[in-house]
Amino acid sequence: MGRIAKIERKTKETNITLTLNLDGSGKAQVKSGIGFLDHMLEGFAKHSFFDLDIGVQGDLQVDGHHSVEDLGIVIGQAIAKALSDKAGIKRFGQFMLPMDDALALCAVDLSGRPYLAYDADFKAECIGYLETELIREFFYAISYSAGMNIHIKLLSGHNDHHKIEAIFKAFGKAMSEAVSFDPRVEGVLSTKGVL
Questions:
Q1: 139-142: which pairs have CB atoms within 8 A and are 24 or more residues apart?
Q2: Which of 18, 13, 6, 65 is CA-nearest to residue 44?
Q3: pLDDT tens column, 34-72
């Protein structure tokens, strides 16, 4: 059957449909209305080996905030749904990723407890039509709706495009590790017996 989740979320501000396959091959069809965000999510899918099919209709005439935040919520919900009881997974994942001048660190824990630690600054207000301040909102929404720890630290970099791309790809690599199976894990990897 596979670890696949389909989510639909409709509000007065956004209408989002999403299919996520944790055991995919990195294929992505993303139409958020924000080109740079699409590009980042395609990179995330490629490096996590998750398949993503995303459609977003949002109130972009206002700004990108609702679309970006709501998409983070839906991605987080899909991760939680696809993982189900989390039996057999490694739970933790981390990756340090270089992208030309940029170096980003991402570590995740699929603990069931939401938390975002985010240390990244950008010089530009926007890359394409994506406001750089919304990067934090996106990952905050994922962490809380998935019930997971996400730690993101931008270690160096000059070009904001490269810095953001390094973050998304590092997140993809960390997630790929965290959702992978370890045959030594019986049930879930927790002394509590639940995640």
A1: 139/72, 139/171, 140/72, 140/116, 141/69, 141/70, 141/71, 141/72, 141/73, 141/75, 141/76, 142/72, 142/73, 142/75, 142/76, 142/79
A2: 18
A3: 999 999 999 999 999 999 999 999 999 999 999 999 999
Burial of residue 58, with CB atoms counted within 10 A of its CB: 0-12 exposed, 13-18 middle, 19 or more buried: buried
From the number of C-beta atoms within 10 Å of its C-beta (0-12, 13-18, 19+), residue 174 rates as buried
Q: Please give the structure tokens belonging to residue 88.
A: 């057999």
pTM greater than 0.85: yes
For residue 83, the SS3 value is helix
